[in-house]
Amino acid sequence: MKLLAPTRWMPAPQRIGAVLWISFLLATVATGVFFSAIDPLELRYCVSFPEVGRTTAYTVGFLLFWLLTASSALLSVAFVYPAEQPAPDAQDPS
Amino acid sequence: MNADNGASPPTENPLYERHQKIYPRQVSGRFATARISAAGTLLGIFYLLPWLSWNGQPAVLFDLPARRFHLFGITLWPQDFLFLAFFLMLAAYSLFFFTAIAGRLWCGYACPQSVWTESFLWIERLIEGNHAQQMKLDESPLDFRKFRLKLTKHALWIGFALYTGFSFVAYFSPARDLAARVLSLQLGGAETFWLLFYGFATYGNAGFLREQVCKYMCPYARFQSAMFDRDTLIVAYDEQRGEPRGARRSDEPPGVRGQGDCINCTLCVQVCPTGIDIRKGLQYECIGCSACIDVCNSVMDRMNTPRGLIRYTTQNAIEGGSVRVLRPRIIVYGLILLLLAGVFSWRLATRVPLALDVLHDRNQLYRETAGQIENVYLLKVMNKDALDHRYTLNAAGIDGLTVKLDQPEISVPAGTLLNLPVSLLADESALSQRSTGVRFELVTADAPAVRVTADARFLGPAP
User: Is it true that the peptide bond before B244 is cis, omega within 30 degrees of 0?
Assistant: First the structure.
């Protein structure tokens, strides 16, 4: 997790917050909207959806949404650094 | 933030300092009392609400497995998602409105992060003593006493955090039942996960991250400045009165050495939970907790100078200008808030506790029987009321349209959904096109008439 290690640009809690916390909030919203429109028990009829209870489906759904939003945030943090220069933490602090 | 604005290359010195634990000094006073009362009330509500009953049912239960929200006798279904959206919008605009008027009232008094941090600090003080004793303990080498104190503190923190996690899950699974399953170690996988997850988040956020959550993670802390203006209530140091700061004996009259009222005792810095110096002006780290006001007032009392060197004020007022409360921003936020609250209450008051969905039979478009055309539908009747009800069904849209039901009457128990197969029959001569619009109407038969309608298509052969 080099991306989450502290650099001289941004303290580690700020980067962890930027990646995990904001994506958590958005995953909560996405889960709420998705599952209020779709009943996981009805998904079972369409695809080879594993037979699980609603609570488990909500939890797994939330974690998948979180994985998605957190991946996006992680890539954004990574791409904030200019491509020509090495990442600031790769430089010799001398 | 006083960080580099990106124009200059990385310098030798790191742009941020390594995080140092902040040991806020305990403070008492008018605002501290208000803050503790607010924290106590909010925690009380959070921990007690899941145990409260309403007509024999849990008063507040977000029953996700059954896809129903129970709120003080009102049952909300997924179809009532609009209410949740409205509620969130109401909450957001209330936050805008109160921020524009009174600044970071939310952060200092009501935010869960502040409230739980306050509780964790209280436990920490209970075990390790005041801020000076805590600092000394942390600097001392590990011995039996330090180990014992740290162990006790963390055990209490973890216990409190786990109970918080339990209370969180109790909003989704009835508390009594959940408690019984926790005690007999029969908790489900999802429930265990959320209990530990919320407990761990509480422990980490309130025990360790504390003010860093406000500084680095909180979206509100970043965008609240957009709602501020020069008439917003802030915690501010009166620079004109306080400067030049300097020490003075309490028996000397104020101003005797050509100094301002600030005696540079640095107590305002010591009590600050985010570790800032309020005398440097408004900073985004300030959560408006007003601990510095309380402590400065107590110093002013001892120094025989008037209170309020640090006080709740506005930027305009502290610069000697006049304060306007009713300004366009406040009026616009207020009107939007009123409108939202009005629509929300109106929708909630006139909410029909009955819903009807119609699905046309997918296997067969229509059936011809003795000169008549028959269409089959599946009706989903949702009784959202807290009482059982009987209903009558009729349909209109085609001359001589008749409803054929398998069962003589439609009765649906409280809070349940009934799948009801229904046939509609019409004379072929009455149809002028292949697809005609029809409307089902469902009316309660046993209570004050509540009616809902649903539209469907009636299919037939080409005329």
Answer: yes
The verdict on B189 touching A (C-beta cutoff 8 Å) is yes
**β-strands B354-360, B372-383: how paired?**
antiparallel
Q: What Å distances lie between residue B296 and B62, B252, B270, B407, CA to CA?
A: 45, 18, 11, 77
SS3 B441: strand
pTM assigned to the model:
0.79
Tokens encoding B64: 């996700």
Both structure tokens of B77? 């279904």
Which residues have a Cβ under 8 Å from the Cβ of B103 and sit 6 or more positions away?
B228, B232, B233, B234, B235, B288
Instruction: Give the C-alpha separation, B139 to B393, whole Å.
Output: 78
Side-chain half-sphere CA neighbours of B266 within 13 A: 4
Torsion angles phi and psi, residue B429, rounded to 5: -70, -20
Residue type present at position A6 = P
C-beta separation of B382 from B419 below 8 A: no
Tally A–B CB contacts below 8 A. 61
Closest CA to B100 of B349, B274, B329: B329
Whether B216 sits inside 8 A of A14 (CB atoms) is: yes
Q: How far apart are the first and last CA of chain A?
A: 23
pLDDT, one tens digit per residue, over B392-434 is: 898 988 888 888 888 778 888 887 888 899 999 998 888 888 8
Whole-number Å distance between alpha carbons of B240 and B314? 14
